[in-house]
Amino acid sequence: MTALAPTIEPRSDHKGEPLPARVSLLGYEETRLAIAFHEAGHAVLAMSYGFHVVSAEVIAREPVPGDWRVGGVTALRLATGNPLWGFATQAAAGGVSEVRYLMTYGLWTPERAAACSADHDRQHAIDLLAEQGARLACDRVPPGGKSWGQVRGIALRKVGHLWREIRTVAHAINENTKLTGEQIAAMTGLTNTPMAGGAA
Fold first, then answer.
1. Is residue 138 within 8 Å of 122, Cβ to Cβ?
2. Is residue 123 helix, strand or coil?
3. Is 193 helix (H, G, I), strand (E, B) or coil?
4. What confidence tens digit (pLDDT) does each residue in 70-87 have?
5. Where are the alpha helices (DSSP H) in the chain?
6. Could you tell me the sign of the dihedral formed by the alpha carbons of 49, 124, 167, 199, in that order?
7. Residues 33-56: pLDDT tens digits?
8. Is 97 exposed, middle or buried (0-12, 13-18, 19+ CB in 10 A)?
9. Which residues sit opposite 76 in a β-bridge?
């Protein structure tokens, strides 16, 4: 009996709205590792920009035998002074890291790469930057701002520089399901910036 392709099931967006599920174009193990790379990209780049990373995890459940639901989440704590464009870049890094995983492991196809778009990450960055008066747009370079394409370009370079760390974290997330920011810092040599008042 052939197992069903897993469904990618992110929980909800930054506004609490449910995100649409999509059928994965990979098997369960490859999908789980792809999500681990996605979350590792967020966590490592966030840490490199000085954000406090709480945790990064892969969430997998099997509501019906053989029917897997796989998703992931990276939790950050934002503080005054965190770089807005760094937040946008870490948001783009999830999809960029997932595509690089496909390429590195010989799994890349145009359809699989397109499925890594993570529109919810882009929209989160657009909304958060707008709240702070910065301009990020999907389809153009707004006056005084940046386009999502420019941000993805920055993320592509940063992911390339930090690929060893992202790969290390992704495999650890896949193996352990969830890592804390402190665990990620210990295995990468990056600093998980403490929150004001010593909060973790």
1. yes
2. helix
3. coil
4. 889 999 998 888 899 999
5. 28-48, 84-104, 110-114, 119-131, 148-161, 163-176, 181-188
6. positive
7. 999 999 999 999 999 999 999 999
8. buried
9. 53
